[in-house]
Structure formats: structure tokens, C-alpha cells
Amino acid sequence: MLRDLRSELSLQEECLLHYSLQLGIWEILINIIDHSPKAAANCHTHITIRWTDSDIVLKITNRDSGFDWRKCLMTGLPSPAQQRGRGLYIIQSISKHFTFDENGESANITFARK
Q1: Fewest Cβ atoms nearer than 10 Å: which of 36, 44, 64, 92?
Q2: Which segments constitute the Histidine kinase/HSP90-like ATPase domain (predicted)?
């Protein structure tokens, strides 16, 4: 999927945008697996990628894997001693815009193309 996108948008594999797209997808998929293993095993995860001249938008959806994303983002950054809890903050810091749908089943991540 990313190989096709990279080709379509003429992205180099080593460029920061390509890495950010990979990291955004990875972090959301890991959250689905870690926090909703039954949903991850029994449901399909859909990834939609669309783009304009200025943005690339990822939509990652897994029904039945919702969570209270507002609570997670309001708890603050984890301490350096904690081994988990940085994924959503990483996505926030590398993206232009990041949010979930009301139920926390669908993540929308926007990256600036330039």
C-alpha cells in the first residue's frame, strides 16, 4: 500500500513524509492490537488514503475497537519510566491534524505534503 502511494506521489522511501505515514499507520494498528485484541482478531481494519496537492489524509477504521481517546490524550505525556502510552502523542507531533470519530473506532490523520 505505501509502496503504491510512494510511487503515485513520487515520494522517496527515505523522506520524512514517507516515514511519518508509516509511523502513523503503525501506531494506530498497534493500539488496535494491544487494547482491543478480540476486535483486532475478529474484525477487518480498513485503511483509506486520499490526497490533495497540500495534504495526505489517512483514515484507519476498526469497528468494535473503540475507546475513550479524549481521556487518553488528556492524561498527559507518560513519564520516561513508563514503557507505553506514547503512540497517540507521537502521531499528534508528526501530523498536521489528528482526531478520532466519536466512538474512537476511526482515526483520521492529516499530513502536510510540503
Answers
A1: 44
A2: 20-108
